[in-house]
Design brief:
A: about 500 residues, alpha+beta, 6-stranded antiparallel barrel, globular, disordered N terminus, B: about 60 residues
C-alpha cells in the first residue's frame, strides 16, 4: 500500500477526517459567522445529532470550502446585498458508519489509483450522507441528504418510495446515497413551504428530466404573479396559490386535495407517497392564522388489522404514521395521524414529536390541504384512480368465498416502463407476457390498481392516467396468479366491457 | 357465474350465442352492482376535490 501523504499546513481547505462524538454542533463551530451558535443552537442541529447517532455514525469527513448551488443562489439573490459580508462558500460534512482516520482516508484515496471502483464501493457501503453547513447564524443546515433510518419492527412496515439515489463526489471518488434532500428554512430567501416544494421537486424533477430548482428560484417563481403577503425578500411565507404557481414553474402539475376525513386523507396520502410523489402538506394550528408546510416522504403501515371497506379491505386503513421533512426539525421525522375534534367536526390531525433535548411538547396540527407536485402527464387524481380500484375490488370480493373479506386494495402511479420491467417476474404465461410487453399500449405513467389476497398479488389493473375518469381508461387486467375459473371469466368479461386486454 | 357459464365463454369468445350473451349480461349486472355498492365511498372520497376559501387563504410560514 502506498504511503499516504499527510495534510501539510500549507494545504488550506484540505479534507479532514474526524471522529463523530454524537454532537453535530461540534463540527459547526469554526464555520464563518457561526460564533454564537452555542448559545442559540437550532433544534435542527440537535435533531440531526441524534439522527446521526441512531444511524451509527462514527466518522466525519469535512470539506471546509464547498460551493453549494443552492446557497450560492441565496447569496446572489439576497445575502450579497446585505451590509454584512457573507461568504459565498459553505462547509460540507460527510458521515460514515465506520471508524476512519485522516491517514486511513488518505490511504484509500491513494489506493483508488489502483482499483477506484473497489474503493468507491467500500466507502459507499458505510456512507450515511452529507450535510451542507451554511455560514448563516441560526440557520446553518443547508442541503442535507441522509440515508433512511433502518429500524425493524415486526408490527410495522416502513415505506420510503419518495427517496432517490444521489451521486456524491468526494475527493475524486463517486459515492452513492439513497435519501431525499432536506434543508432548514433561512427566513431570508426561503420559508417552510418553499423548502417543502424544494424537497418534493428533488424526487420528481429528475424523473421527468427537469432541473431541480433552488430555493431562491422557488421564491421568485412563487411570487411572479401573485403576492399574498407583501414582500418576498425576506420571505414572509407562501399562500396556496403561490405554492401551486411555484410547482407549475418547475414544469410539474400541482395536484391539490382538500382534507375530507381521516379515512380518505390516509388513502390520498398513501396513494401519492406510494407512487414516489412527495406531498406538500399544509398544516394549521387551531387559533393561529398562519400555517406551516412539511413534505411527506414516507409511510408507516401496520402489518395487521386492516379495516373492512364493504366486501374488501383497504391498505390505506393500516397507515399509522407518516415521515416528514419538517424544516423546523429535520428529515424523516415521524408524525402520527389521528382524528381531532375541532368546531364540532372530526378533522385529520398530525402529531409531531420533538426530540427530548428540544424540550418541547408534541405539537399538533390540523391538516389543511395536500399539494402534490406530479408529472403533467398524470392527469387522473388519486381519488379517481381509487374509484376504479374500489369497483374492481368489490367485484372480485363478491365473486366467491375465497375472496370475500380477503381482497386488499392498493393503488399507486407508476412509470409504464418500470411496470413492464417488473412484469418479467410475475410468472405470466408466454402469451400473456408477450402481449403485455409488445401489444398493450400504455401511457407514460399508469395508474396501478393492485388487488392482493393472503399476502400475494392476484390481480393488477392498469389505468391510463392521461384520462380523467377510470371508466374511460382501463387498459389491461392482469391475473398475477392462478385464479378460479369463474373469476377469470368474469374479469375477462369486465375487461372486454372496457375494451381492455385480459392477460394471465 | 357457474360452471356452465365458463364453458360457454371458453367455447369461443367470438361466438355471440344467446348463452354467451346471457353470461355477459350477468357479468355486467354483477359489475354494475359492485359499482353501486361502492358509490357512497366514492362520493365521500371526492370531497377532497372541494376547496374552501379558508383553505386557499392559509399563509404558510
Amino acid at each position: 500500500m502506498a504511503v499516504a501523504p499527510s495534510a501539510s499546513e500549507g494545504q488550506r481547505g484540505a479534507l479532514r477526517v474526524l471522529p463523530y462524538g454524537g454532537d453535530l454542533g461540534a463540527f459547526l463551530g469554526d464555520t464563518p459567522r457561526l460564533a454564537y451558535l452555542e448559545s442559540e443552537r437550532p433544534c435542527q442541529v440537535a435533531y440531526l445529532s441524534t439522527y446521526l447517532t441512531e444511524l451509527g455514525c462514527q466518522s466525519v469527513v469535512e470539506e471546509p470550502r464547498y460551493i453549494d448551488r443552492d446557497y450560492v443562489d441565496d447569496v446572489a439573490l439576497y445575502y450579497s446585498r446585505s451590509l454584512r459580508t457573507y461568504p459565498n462558500y459553505c462547509k460540507r460534512l460527510h458521515f460514515f458508519c465506520e471508524p476512519l482516520s485522516d491517514e486511513e482516508f488518505r490511504s484509500r484515496i491513494c489506493a483508488a489509483a489502483g482499483d477506484r471502483q473497489a474503493i468507491e464501493s467500500a466507502l459507499t457501503r458505510t456512507y450515511l450522507g452529507f450535510v451542507v453547513v451554511r455560514p448563516l447564524p441560526a440557520h446553518p443546515i443547508g442541503r442535507t441528504v441522509l440515508s433512511v433510518h433502518a429500524t425493524s419492527d415486526p408490527e410495522f412496515k416502513r415505506l420510503f418510495p419518495c427517496t432517490r439515489a444521489y451521486v456524491v463526489h468526494l475527493a475524486g471518488l463517486s459515492l452513492e446515497i439513497a435519501g431525499l434532500a432536506f434543508q432548514q428554512q433561512d427566513q431570508g430567501v426561503s420559508a417552510c413551504a418553499m423548502t417543502a416544494i424544494w424537497s418534493a421537486s428533488h424526487r420528481i424533477a429528475p424523473q421527468e428530466d427537469l432541473r431541480v430548482p433552488t430555493a431562491a428560484e422557488i421564491n421568485q417563481s412563487a411570487s411572479r404573479y401573485i403576492m399574498t403577503s407583501g414582500r418576498t425578500l425576506p420571505s414572509d411565507g407562501l399562500g396556496l396559490h403561490q405554492v401551486c404557481e411555484a410547482i407549475r414553474a418547475i414544469g410539474l402539475a400541482p395536484a391539490m386535495i382538500a382534507p375530507s376525513g381521516l379515512k380518505n386523507d390516509r388513502r390520498q396520502i398513501l396513494t401519492y407517497v406510494r407512487s414516489g410523489f412527495p406531498a406538500v402538506l399544509a398544516l394549521r394550528n387551531p387559533g393561529r392564522t398562519e400555517g406551516h408546510a412539511v413534505c411527506c416522504v414516507g409511510a408507516k403501515l401496520r402489518n395487521a388489522d386492516l379495516a373492512d371497506t364493504l366486501s374488501f379491505k383497504d391498505i390505506a386503513s393500516s397507515l399509522d404514521a407518516i415521515y416528514i421533512h419538517d424544516d423546523r426539525l429535520g428529515p424523516y421525522a415521524a408524525a402520527q395521524l389521528f382524528e381531532k375534534e375541532h368546531d364540532g367536526q372530526l378533522l385529520t390531525a398530525l402529531r409531531i414529536k420533538w426530540p427530548d433535548h428540544c424540550q418541547a411538547p408534541p405539537e399538533e396540527f390540523l391538516l389543511s390541504a395536500m399539494i402534490v407536485p406530479v408529472p403533467v402527464k398524470v392527469r387522473m387524481s388519486g381519488a379517481r384512480l381509487r374509484e376504479g380500484g374500489m369497483w374492481i375490488a368489490e367485484f372480485v370480493a363478491r365473486s366467491g368465498d375465497e375472496f370475500k373479506g380477503k381482497v386488499v386494495l392498493d393503488t399507486w402511479f407508476e412509470k409504464a416502463t418500470d411496470y413492464r420491467t417488473r412484469a418479467f417476474g410475475f410468472g405470466l404465461s408466454d402469451e400473456g407476457l408477450c402481449t403485455l410487453q409488445s401489444a398493450v399500449k400504455l401511457s407514460r405513467y399508469v395508474g396501478l390498481i393492485e388487488l392482493s389476497a393472503n399476502g400475494t398479488p392476484c390481480v393488477d389493473v392498469l389505468v391510463d392516467v392521461t384520462e380523467i375518469k377510470p371508466n374511460m381508461a382501463i387498459l389491461a387486467m392482469i391475473a398475477r396468479r392462478s385464479l378460479p375459473g369463474d373469476l377469470v371469466v368474469s374479469l375477462r368479461g369486465v375487461a372486454e366491457g372496457f375494451s381492455a386486454a385480459f392477460l394471465q | 357465474m357457474n360452471d356452465s357459464d365458463i364453458s360457454v365463454i371458453a367455447a369461443g369468445d367470438t361466438v355471440q350465442s344467446e348463452e354467451s350473451k346471457q353470461v355477459r349480461a350477468r357479468i355486467e349486472e354483477a359489475f354494475r352492482q359492485a359499482r353501486e355498492a361502492v358509490q357512497s365511498e366514492v362520493q365521500d372520497e371526492r370531497r377532497g376535490e372541494l376547496f374552501t376559501f379558508e383553505m386557499m387563504n392559509l399563509r404558510l410560514v
